[in-house]
Design a protein that fits this description.
CATH superfamily of the largest domain: Periplasmic binding protein-like II
Order of helices and strands: HEHEHEHEEHEHHEHEHEEHHEHH
Distance between the termini: 85 Å
Number of helices: 13
Helix content: 25-40%
CATH topology of the largest domain: D-Maltodextrin-Binding Protein, domain 2
Strand content: 15-25%
Radius of gyration: 24 Å
Shape: globular
Structural class: alpha/beta
Largest sheet: 11 strands, mixed
CATH class of the largest domain: Alpha Beta
Number of strands: 11
CATH architecture of the largest domain: 3-Layer(aba) Sandwich
């Protein structure tokens, strides 16, 4: 009887071992703005027998906070969405495992900001002042060509910006002013903007769809802190086909600030091999060519081709403002606090 029971158990275990298993699950933590074509993600899943689950976790700063708090029991295997304004904080928190993807050979060195390859660049975009072409043409008003121009009387009440304490593009534009005027001069500049009627709102969506005169809301401000890719988005999403964008970006030196977004493998992952494959996938041509019309960012892989809308309507500044990520990490909170005191109180 015991022998029969033993043989039955052996057969049961053997059958269980031979039974088909479902695909593994890879969890990818992202910010709320992440988007990718379903077909592109499905292609990765089928090629690697895996189910990819995306965990959207707020804006870049909020998502990073969650990743840091869950460091000892990670919520995901891969984390995408930290940008160069938060990069040093992510690296200091030691949440990533190093991975030198072979795809790094196709990424220019200007985007490789972590020598230890814990955070690998995926995309970039420029935060710039966008303007309503029709407003400036109708009013016979020259488009500003510098940050200093924005404080001139002829542009009084014409600019809406986002609060850097609550908005990613708002923070990035604040950094552009610090890069240009210096840590000792940016507050005086912002005081002149306040005196010149700058409008401050909490987030990009309110600024773009309520305040901006070129948007559906037909708001009161013809200039807004947005992205150099926004003019292309205006064409792509237009209800009536357009032959030109109704908006454009101010691209003069130091008026834009470049955001670079990164992906990394979270420490503690139980799916290291699959995580590496997904990082390679994000850096590969298929995903890189999908991004522009999904998230309106630029690919970092030099082999990726841009869609026609980007080539025709998006703009790239020749001299964006720059600050070292370590300097941003050391001063970000104080800069925001000082800005709040100078502009909102």
């Amino acid at each position: 009887m015991k022998r029969f029971f033993f043989l039955t158990m052996l057969v049961t275990l053997a059958l269980a071992a031979c039974a088909p298993k479902g695909p593994a699950t890879l969890t990818v933590m992202t910010h709320d703005s992440f988007s990718a074509s379903e077909a592109v993600i499905t292609a990765f899943e089928q090629a690697n027998d895996v189910k990819v689950t995306f965990l959207k976790s707020g804006d870049a700063g909020e998502a990073l906070n969650k990743a840091i708090l869950a460091k000892d029991a990670p919520l995901a295997d891969v984390f995408y969405g930290v940008d160069n304004t938060f990069l040093s904080r992510a690296l200091e928190a030691d949440i990533y495992e190093a991975y030198a993807s072979p795809l790094l050979a196709n990424i220019p060195s200007e985007f490789q900001l972590d020598p230890q390859n814990r955070a690998l660049s995926v995309d970039y975009g420029d935060v710039c002042i966008n303007y309503d072409k029709a407003y400036f043409a109708d009013h016979g008003l020259a488009v500003p060509q510098s940050l200093e121009d924005l404080a001139k009387p002829e542009y009084k009440d014409l600019l809406v910006v986002e609060n850097p304490a609550t908005s990613s593009p708002g923070l990035v534009f604040l950094l552009a002013t610090i890069a240009h005027f210096g840590a000792d001069g940016y507050l005086n500049y912002w005081r002149t903007l306040r005196e010149n009627g700058v409008t401050v709102v909490d987030g990009w969506e309110t600024a773009y769809y309520t305040n901006f005169s070129a948007s559906s809301g037909h708001g009161p401000q013809p200039m807004i802190v947005s992205y150099a890719s926004s003019p292309a988005a205006e064409v792509v999403y237009a209800e009536t086909p357009l032959t030109d964008s109704p908006t454009a970006s101010i691209l003069a030196a130091d008026t834009c600030f470049r955001q670079i977004e990164f992906v990394g493998i979270l420490k503690g992952t139980q799916h290291r091999a699959l995580a590496e494959k997904f990082v390679d996938f994000m850096l590969g041509v298929q995903f890189q060519e999908d991004m522009p019309l999904q998230m309106f960012v630029y690919p970092v892989n030099r082999d990726a081709q841009l869609p026609e809308a980007f080539v025709r309507y998006a703009q790239i500044p020749e001299q964006p403002a720059y600050l070292n990520p370590a300097e941003i990490a050391a001063n970000r909170d104080q800069w925001i606090a000082n800005w709040t005191e100078a502009v909102l109180r």
